[in-house]
Amino acid sequence: MNSKKIIFGFIAFILGLSCFAQSAIVKGIVLDQNDKPIGNVNVSCSVSRTQSNANGFYVLNIPENQKVAVTFTHVSFKKATVFLTLKTNEELEFNLVMNDQQEQMGEIVVTTNNKKRFQGITSIAPDVIRKIPGANAGIENILKTLPGVNSNNELSTQYAVRGGNYDENLVYVNEIEIYRPFLIRSGQQEGLSFTNTDLVQNVDFSAGGFQAKFGDKLSSVLDITYRKPIEFAATFEASLLGGSFSVDAISKNKKWTAITGVRYRNNSLLVNSQDTETNYTPTFADIQTNINYQASAKWQWSFLGNISQNQYQYQPLTRQTKFGTIDQPMALSVYYEGQEKDKYETYFGAVKTTFAATPNFTLKFIGSAFHTLEQEHFDIFAQYRLGEVDSNIGSETYGDVAFTRGIGSQLNHARNDLDAFIINAEVKGFHDWRKNEIEWGVKYTRESIRDRVVEWEVIDSAGFSINPPIFNLPKNDQPYSSYQGPLVPYKNIRAVNFNTINRFSGYGQWSRTGNLGAAEVSYNAGVRVHSWEVSDSNSKGAAQFTFSPRAQISIKPEWDTEMVFRLSGGLYHQPPFYRELRDADGVVQPDVKAQQSVHIVLSDDYSFEMWNRPFKLVSELYYKSLTDVNTYTIDNVRIRYAASNVAKGYAQGLDFRLNGEFVSGTESWISFGYLKTEENSNNRGYIARPTDQRLKFALLFQDYMPNIPSVKLYLNLVYNTGLPGGSPSYSDPYLYQRRLNDYRRVDVGFSKVLIDRNDVNPNKSWFVNFKELALGVEIFNLFNNQNAITNTWVRDVYSKNEYAIPNYMTTRVFNIKLSARL
């Protein structure tokens, strides 16, 4: 499919949808004076009526182009009436605060907020994040259901966006950049994501073409805001995978607020469902707090802190994996000795202060420090047996290995230790001047890395040592002829790196929203600069500099259909982080240049009504031209870079997301994505990049029983076509373009709300203290699909054949979850 066909299909699809019509809509959330949602509020006008759900959310159709009285009534609150005048097909978000003292009445001057729509930002409700099931439930679990976001590893919280890799995504919490551990190589080692979903208030995500105020990465931005408590509250959750507890606190004078969360997780339930039988004793735990102090009307301070400790102790015992075809079934049996002991400790602290100098000028100061201590130690000896399986039904040995094709062993050793300390200091300014918004910022970062890498691997087949494929050694034709060359490990990496990286970066951008004729138009233009230098104890790399201009323009025409068109793009750079500087031998290459990408994103945001309920279809067509590419391979979640800029590439695709109330009062969505990304290394020709995930389909669905609304269902379905991968270690990607099988997974959850704040009888004992109490059952991998993350390659020394044995992910797993809110 060439680019012209894609563009033509995109335009035809959008125009074809314009036949849908939409009347004026007002929607929002009804809150009490403590900013808590109110359910069962009757919302009505002269021609229609509705009711807010348990989350306080309502949607009401009203007549267009006329003054309409919208009335809000509830048995516990005074009536509120508001007068609205909306244009044809206009949509207004109106959040009402009801009180119990006096009747409210007023007239609203409508100024529809299209800011996030104009910026191409996807917002995700925290309530959805907490309820949707997944092996790694949380924000990343929901991101993987969005178009353009791909992952084929349910044990990992990492994700790839539009052809990028895991290291190309920005993550902010309260405008503070978040870092991940460096050495993790397997999804089951990751444990907890940094973001605690119990503390979240807003989640915004952009998959490309983002503004200059966001940092220097190539693929995406995840921007998270933690909430500020307004009263004492607590949440609790416990399941077979662990538990969490959080507390909201506020001082009597309301100047101090704090929210603190503690989490614990144990992945044994999931890991024990895999082919490998193990003694697995992990401990993943963290504590996180966000403290705010309102010093005055103009000055505010906050502190964000996190301490986490992940201890991963893994002792494999045996493994049996069956593969092959019906006609020729085969099996790999492995017997292990040894163990793996990994430890990841991270300490993070950030201070942020906001000073509102004038109503139109605000300054922000941010300082943060991140310290990670990582240990990866293992010695694992594996003896394997590869054979044909007895497939004769009725045979006494049916299902067992009847004929052995090959035997061998493998010894893996590692003593990897890393100590990294990163500090940041940043100043930001915000100016509102005659309908123009001007933002700027300057930042200094110092990264101090102390790293020791010691890894080696020895492989033999039928007692004969296997030589590495990358060395020019004499031909090994054992056992048919004797081998005269040296015996060397299949893999041998040894390096010690002590590096310091000093970075200076800054940005400036301008935004304005106005009118172009009858159409509403939003403009944004900005530029980022970045300068850095890598040094060690003996030398310095060359000082490098990047200049990245970016722009967006969005238009909302005065049409009968509600559409916003957006064109965005620019020049994006990714200066190398430490992992990108370290080559396949573990040695730091200080002069690695920044990877460069030109983004072009054309999108349409179309709101319409179907089944008398609101829906939105977001369609995006994108193209990225990549230069100075630092090529890499992916093994599970470990990325190995070549630490050179010898390639160029591109990524192109089309994303669709349809979301709305498929079931009244709940939000669900369907996503579809097409992607093609290739690279050309040293002018050898274009081949698929490791993240070339051609097709992606996802469904997130919420439902409830009409007659028993307290019984709810949550469904999370993902289908991805197979990634390039699973080739032998250190193989030439131009010789191995094998793809893994398609990734198919369905997670489902059922929940029964035992106690709801709107239904509690104050005279019934201690139930009155609960705002919500729910008991749920989750089924992960409902259809028990076998999804492979990598391949284990076994060589038969006699036939010279290599067999790819898939390393399967988790099978069907059941989980029970209890959650409460006080």
Structure description:
The chain is mainly β and 822 residues long. Helices cover 5% and strands 57% of the residues. It has a 22-stranded antiparallel beta barrel. Strands 3-2-5-6-9 form a five-stranded mixed β-sheet, with no helix packed on it. Strands 10-15-16-13-14 form a five-stranded mixed β-sheet. The N terminus is likely disordered.
User: What's the alpha carbon Rg, rounded to whole Å?
Assistant: 28 Å
Fraction of helical residues: under 10%
- What is the overall silhouette? globular
Enumerate the spans where pLDDT stays under 50 for 5 or more consecutive residues. 3-8, 10-22, 107-113
Count of DSSP H/I helices: 6
Strand fraction: over 45%
What summary fits the major beta sheet? 22 strands, antiparallel, barrel
* Quaternary status: single chain
Distance between the termini: 55 Å
Mean pLDDT: 86
* Number of distinct beta strands: 45
Assign the structural class, choosing from mainly alpha, mainly beta, alpha/beta, alpha+beta, or little secondary structure: mainly beta
Fold blueprint:
Blueprint: H1 3-16, E1 25-31, E2 42-44, E3 49-51, E4 57-61, E5 67-74, E6 77-85, E7 91-93, E8 96-97, E9 104-107, H2 115-119, E10 122-124, H3 126-131, H4 139-143, E11 149-150, E12 160-161, E13 169-173, E14 176-177, E15 200-206, E16 220-226, E17 233-239, E18 242-250, E19 256-265, H5 268-271, E20 276-280, E21 283-294, E22 299-324, E23 329-358, E24 361-389, E25 401-433, E26 436-461, E27 464-465, E28 491-516, E29 519-536, E30 544-556, E31 562-574, H6 578-581, E32 595-610, E33 613-629, E34 632-635, E35 638-641, E36 647-660, E37 668-681, E38 686-688, E39 695-704, E40 711-720, E41 743-756, E42 772-780, E43 788-796, E44 801-808, E45 813-821
Parallel strand pairs: 1-7, 1-8, 6-9, 13-16
Antiparallel strand pairs: 1-4, 2-3, 2-5, 5-6, 10-15, 11-12, 13-14, 15-16, 17-18, 17-45, 18-19, 19-21, 20-22, 21-22, 22-23, 23-24, 24-25, 25-26, 26-27, 26-28, 28-29, 29-30, 30-31, 31-32, 32-33, 33-36, 34-35, 36-37, 37-38, 37-39, 39-40, 40-41, 41-42, 42-45, 43-44
